[in-house]
TrEMBL record:
Residues 7-139 form the HTH marR-type domain. This is MarR family transcriptional regulator. InterPro entries: HTH_MarR-typ, MarR/SlyA-like, WH-like_DNA-bd_sf, WH_DNA-bd_sf.
């Protein structure tokens, strides 16, 4: 890009990268019979305190009614548990199971190996900076 040209907008650059990474992840998810939303839910629940469906939906920026079918599927496959909140029986608390954690770990490792397509192009210093800044901007 010539020096006097403006850089592309962040959304343009990030959208292109996001589309490429999502496309690269899909075969991994398909191999493990897991939807993208299912993977997102397992990642959100892994390492977190037990949480309500509403809190989960908020944390992953999803409509709480939209993820119900994902939660049903994950529960049916033994990857999560839903129990009534003892303080409010109308509320369901979610927790990842050992089976769900093992699946999430396996899928995440395969996805991260695939991310080397992009990260492998960076020097160790640039890679560390890129990942740190990306985490900072997405927090």
């Amino acid at each position: 890009m010539p020096r006097n040209s403006p850089r592309p907008d962040l959304a343009a650059m990030l959208t292109r990268l996001a589309r490429q990474t999502v496309a690269a992840e899909q075969p991994v998810l398909d191999t493990h019979d897991l939807s993208m939303w299912g993977y997102i839910v397992l990642c959100a629940l892994d390492g977190s305190a037990v949480r309500s469906q509403a809190a989960l939906a908020e944390s992953i920026n999803a409509d709480k009614t939209r993820i119900i079918s994902t939660l049903d599927e994950l529960q049916g496959r033994g990857h999560i548990e839903r129990v009534a909140d003892p303080d409010d029986r109308r509320v369901r608390l979610l927790e990842i199971t050992q089976t769900g954690r093992a699946l999430k770990t396996t899928v995440q490792q395969a996805i991260q190996r695939g991310e080397e397509r992009w990260l492998g192009q960076l020097s160790a210093t640039d890679r560390a900076v890129f990942l740190r800044v990306l985490e900072q901007l997405t927090d």
